[in-house]
Specification:
Layout: H1 7-10, E1 13-15, E2 21-23, E3 39-42, H2 50-63, H3 71-87, E4 93-99, E5 108-119, E6 125-135, E7 139-141, H4 143-154, E8 157-158, H5 160-175, E9 179-188, H6 189-192, E10 203-210, H7 211-214, H8 216-226
Parallel strand pairs: 5-8
Antiparallel strand pairs: 1-2, 3-4, 4-7, 5-6, 6-9, 9-10
Helix pairs in contact: 2-3, 4-5
Amino acid sequence: MSPLPTDEQLHGTTRNDAGGDHLLEAAPTEVQESKRPPTKLLPGSPVIDVDAAERAAAALLTAFGVPEGSEAAVRTPARMVAGLAELLTASPWEFTTFPNWEDQHELVLVRDVPFTSVCAHHVLPFSGTAQIGVLPGEKIAGLSKLARVVEMFAARMQIQEELGQQIAAFLEQELDCRGVAVMLSAEHVCMTRRGVRAYGSGTITIATRGRLRDDHTARSEFFQLVRPAAGRTA
């Protein structure tokens, strides 16, 4: 059995032959720096007042002539609210970045990221794909994080132009990159299933920052790579 430490050892001192105290030298230890990359916890969606939303949905159904007490009037309000809440809800998550140790400065392109959002004008969905190009700077992020950014900003009522600008602005700020380009191609139910009923039509919007906005060569490279996706909405 190992002897118990003395009081002097516990307090970091020992006695020398002359009776004086001196500090014990600490044994050299290796301090492991944390390998955890820097992260930023991103908030989820605002809390939804489900009860108020269901009452409003019930009133809307009544206004449209759905008979009170019918199965639709009783159960549909909850389904309406749950369905819309699912489209407008994003869970909290961490946006993780890494130093660009490899000095990667060529264009990184993530293609065909699917998304569904809700049109703020008609409260109807629009769905499609996102093409995201990044010219790295001092920081990089995992490719899946770029898809997460699309998912996060899609979970709100907005127009397509706003969605693309929000994604581009976020990536430019958080990655401190040299350039960002976001191309969204989507089909809008408010255009294809009502109003003009332009079946099969799609809408393309572009949001660019930095060199992917101002440098003709970099901009051309991005558009050459995403060209096959320009006609796809899903």
